[in-house]
Amino acid sequence: QVCAQLCRRPCYCPWVPPRCPRGSPLVLDGCGCCKICARRLGEPCDFLHVCDQSQGLICDYSTAPAGTGATCNFEDDEEGCEVNGRVYRDGEVFQPSCKIQCRCSDGGFNCIPLCQEDVRLPTPDCPYPRRVEIPGKCCPEWICEAQDQHLLRDARPVSPLLPFPCQEWGTEWSACSATCGVGFATRVSNQNRYCRLETQRRLCMVRACPAPPAAFPVSE
Prior knowledge:
Blueprint: H1 2-6, E1 26-28, E2 35-37, E3 44-45, E4 57-60, E5 70-74, E6 80-83, E7 86-89, E8 93-97, E9 100-105, E10 108-113, E11 129-132, E12 141-144, H2 147-154, E13 183-189, E14 198-204
Antiparallel strand pairs: 1-2, 3-5, 4-5, 6-7, 8-9, 9-10, 11-12, 13-14
């Protein structure tokens, strides 16, 4: 009955299919006529605007108040998380970058660094260790710097206008490791006492995490 009311025959579709946002594939609408962008987790849906079934999403009417539309949700209330436009199942392990590995858990995700954060102390065979970014490699590595280069750098005059005795060089701060709540961002910079390239971290928060939904509706 719904199909007969909403679906027209023959189909009339645009010549050019729509351009979908990242993580939203082209699928047939509920009438099986025209290609549309599949709705993603948490987006509104109905009979025509279908959810992305490849991600295990269904149009969930159970949480919609009377008279309002439904939203895309996991079947059987399965928890998942969305990162950079892609939906991951609960328990799925993924890598947003080569430096961190994350695991989807209860609608959020936890990440651990894949690069070792060890500290190399000076030794007789390597008196001036320095950690640098190596082209073609993901994680920074320690190198042994020559003593004459170390002495020349330390001998530079300190300008009263500069907080450190060298010209600033560094990468941009990376994206926050968490899409909500407190995470961390990293960069490589030489702004330290010895002007050595090192990986620096700082706390970051894109937005606060939403409160978990109530298990049972509150009756008045």
